[in-house]
């Protein structure tokens, strides 16, 4: 099983926040209950210039476990409620990691 990072961007206008956040929270609770997450964070843009106002970043213990969890009808129903918000999910791995404490680390 391979770990990975899920990054999913959503185009949500401020007046649609609650319409987005309610099903997002339900989907997050469902996926947590089925395993696979190490951490999950939902980021909100600080200004109006961002195309994707909400960005979800989740570290996955297993991409395969996550894929299995989203294959069910419960998740499909929640995803359908957010489909018009232009979600762009993708799996990623670290290519370059930097910090102020040390030199760059390429993988």
Task: Give the SSE layout.
Layout: E1 4-10, H1 17-33, E2 37-44, E3 54-60, H2 63-70, H3 73-82, E4 90-92, E5 96-99, E6 102-106
Antiparallel strand pairs: 1-3, 1-4, 2-3, 5-6
Helix pairs in contact: 1-3
What's the number of structural domains?
A: 1
The level-1 CATH class: Alpha Beta
Strand order of the largest sheet: 2-3-1-4
Helix content: 25-40%
Protein structure class: alpha+beta
Taking the alpha carbons of the first and last residues, their distance comes to 19 Å
What gyration radius follows from the Cα positions, in whole Å?
15 Å
Low-confidence stretches: none
Query: Main sheet?
Result: 4 strands, antiparallel
Number of helices, where a helix is a run of at least 4 consecutive DSSP H or I residues: 3
CATH topology, what is it called? Alpha-Beta Plaits
Strand content: 25-35%
Q: What's the mean pLDDT score?
A: 88
């Amino acid at each position: 099983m391979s770990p990975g990072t899920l990054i999913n961007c959503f185009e949500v206008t401020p007046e649609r926040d609650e319409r987005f956040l309610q099903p997002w929270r339900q989907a997050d609770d469902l996926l947590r209950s089925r395993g696979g997450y190490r951490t999950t964070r939902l980021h909100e843009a600080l200004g109006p210039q961002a195309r994707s106002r909400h960005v979800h970043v989740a570290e996955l213990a297993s991409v395969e476990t996550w894929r299995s969890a989203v294959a069910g009808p419960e998740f499909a129903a929640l995803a359908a409620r957010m489909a018009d918000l232009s979600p762009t999910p993708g799996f990623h791995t670290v290519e370059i990691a930097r910090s102020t404490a040390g030199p760059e680390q390429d993988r």
